[in-house]
Design a protein that fits this description.
heterodimer; A: alpha+beta; three-stranded antiparallel β-sheet; 3 helices; 7 strands; B: mainly alpha; Amino acid/polyamine transporter I; 18 helices; 78% helix
């Protein structure tokens, strides 16, 4: 399997069939005397911005700090991956992960105060 | 082939192709160069047919909308370039379309466009917010048929058809050189608005296209855009007949009403106002949708045209903020026609950002299998890409040196 081609940047689907971001990073576990293996998939938070280079990451990081709870990436343990096709299905509930923190915060503090939301 | 699929094509064709930008650029081209720039409309239409067909095929075969496919193939940093360029362009095109609707309302009411900009933005916003995009989509397709009036008007004016046909062959300008190339580029930018094929590929995903849709996709791409292209040519021909002999340059939307009045009298004025308002409003809502789709798909958020805002907070916020920002330049009094010219040039300049990745995606064996591009579509697309880059490299320095030509 080519991680960069078949896993990175793929759409994540949670166990209720909702879209929960894309694979923004892959955390490998290095093991002495054995090939490295995938420990987590990361999505959201500062994870994707790290790929833009040091300076842009710094700016993105500063912006993220203003948004409550948003600088923590969601970590998806490899065994939680259920299937991989066009999308990657995982056994988590998106609303219980930091991935949805900004969405829920915006819903509560901004969108709900507008008419007909 | 399904009716829904046909309607998607018709929207992309008429409600999408002919909007403020193409009406303005075609009228300007006809006014200064008579029929000489028809080739630019033909070239741009052919380019849009190819891009539409390919993004529909990409969605049907790979089950991915264009933005998602770009992110997966080229990674997050390149996606961010596409997104930033896309959002800036959406802002400019939104300002263009809102400005055109506002100008049409000014023509109808006598009240300045500056007062109309914000109400138009709010009505467009409300339609998406309340999840009624499909209503907008269908009604702008039906009402957009009023733009056929340009074709009727052109026929009624009895142009010399041989002369019109000879405009399809590119020739070098004899006067206003800088303006000639710049107008050609603007026509390309106005016809090939990336939002068209981004929305098209998203619609294909929402309607769950599979490979059985491919022939329908080909037909709608050719038919819808071809119709739009013909209407653009009609505007250009009308401007060539009405303005060029009198040496009138087109610098306001108001002037363009004169393309229909010789053949239709006061009704021509009314039809022009209605056409400008309807097509530009349809485009306004579609650009908002495209920007929100693009952002949501790239980041992997939920997206859907009939989304409830409370369940799609980030997605809804994207088009809300964007449409309000786009009304600002008009409220403070920036001329809608100047916004149009500027936006169309930027639109053309931004084309490589989405066209080049599409070319790579369409040749990806893993993604497209047996439905990847043949050598002919590749050759034509590359030729088109090279031509647009050359046009751009020629036009922009000339425009700067010529100070507006």
């Amino acid at each position: 399997m080519l991680l960069s081609r078949e896993v990175l940047d793929r759409q994540l689907i949670d166990r209720r069939g909702h879209k929960m971001g894309r694979v923004d990073g892959i955390v490998l576990e290095l093991r002495p005397g054995a090939p490295p293996r995938v420990a987590f998939l990361e999505c959201g938070g500062r994870s994707p911005w790290r790929r833009l280079g040091r300076r842009l990451y710094g700016w993105a990081d500063a912006v993220q700090k203003l948004l409550p709870g948003r600088d923590v990436p969601t970590r998806i343990p490899w065994p939680a991956v259920l299937s991989m096709g066009v999308d990657i299905e995982v056994s988590l509930d998106a609303t219980r992960t930091p991935e949805m923190a900004l969405e829920l915060w915006l819903r509560e503090h901004v969108i709900q105060h507008l008419p007909w939301a | 082939m399904k009716i829904s699929q046909l309607s998607l094509g018709v929207v992309t064709g008429i409600g999408g192709f002919l909007e403020a930008g193409s009406i303005a650029t075609s009228a300007q081209a006809g006014a200064v160069f008579r029929y000489q720039l028809i080739w630019a409309v033909v070239l741009a239409t052919a380019g849009l047919v190819l891009l539409t067909e390919m993004s529909g095929r990409l969605a049907a075969v790979s089950k991915r909308a264009l933005t998602g496919a770009i992110r997966e193939r080229f990674g997050f940093p390149y996606f961010m370039i596409v997104l930033v360029v896309g959002l800036v362009l959406s802002f400019l095109v939104l300002a263009t379309e809102i400005g055109a609707v506002a100008t049409a309302l000014q023509m109808a009411s006598g009240i300045s466009y500056r007062w109309w900009a914000l109400p138009i933005a709010l009505v467009g916003w409300l339609l998406l917010w309340r999840g009624t995009f499909s209503v907008v989509e269908n009604s702008s397709a039906m009402l957009g048929l009023i733009s056929m009036a340009f074709a009727v008007g052109a026929v009624m004016m009895h142009p010399h058809w041989g002369e019109v046909a000879s405009g399809m062959i590119p020739t070098l300008p004899t006067h206003d050189r800088a303006n000639y190339w710049f107008t050609a580029v603007s026509i390309v930018g106005a016809s090939i608005s990336p939002y068209l094929y981004f929305v098209y590929s998203s619609g294909a995903i929402e309607e769950k296209w599979d490979e059985s849709y491919l022939s329908g996709n080909r037909i709608t791409a050719v038919f819808g855009n071809g119709m739009g292209g013909l209407l653009s040519i009609a505007v250009l021909v009308l401007a060539g007949l009405v303005f060029e002999p009198r040496g009138i340059k087109v610098e306001h939307y108001q002037q363009i009403a004169a393309t229909l009045t010789p053949s239709m009298g006061h009704w021509g004025f009314i039809i022009f106002v209605a056409t400008l308002a309807i097509t530009a409003f349809g485009a306004t809502v579609e650009v908002m949708l495209a920007a929100a789709y693009m952002t949501a798909q790239g980041f992997g958020w939920e997206w859907a045209e009939d989304a409830r805002p409370r369940e799609h907070a980030r997605y809804s916020l994207v088009y809300t903020v964007l449409v309000l920002l786009a009304a600002v330049p008009l409220v403070i009094g920036i001329d809608p026609f100047k916004v149009t010219n500027f936006s169309m040039a930027i639109s053309a300049a931004s084309l490589p950002v989405s066209v080049l990745p599409l070319l790579v995606l369409m040749n990806d064996h893993e993604l497209m299998g047996d439905h990847r591009n043949g050598w002919l579509s590749n050759a034509v697309l590359v030729l088109f890409g090279v031509l647009s880059v050359v046009l751009l490299l020629v036009a922009i320095p000339l425009q700067i040196m010529g100070g507006g030509g």
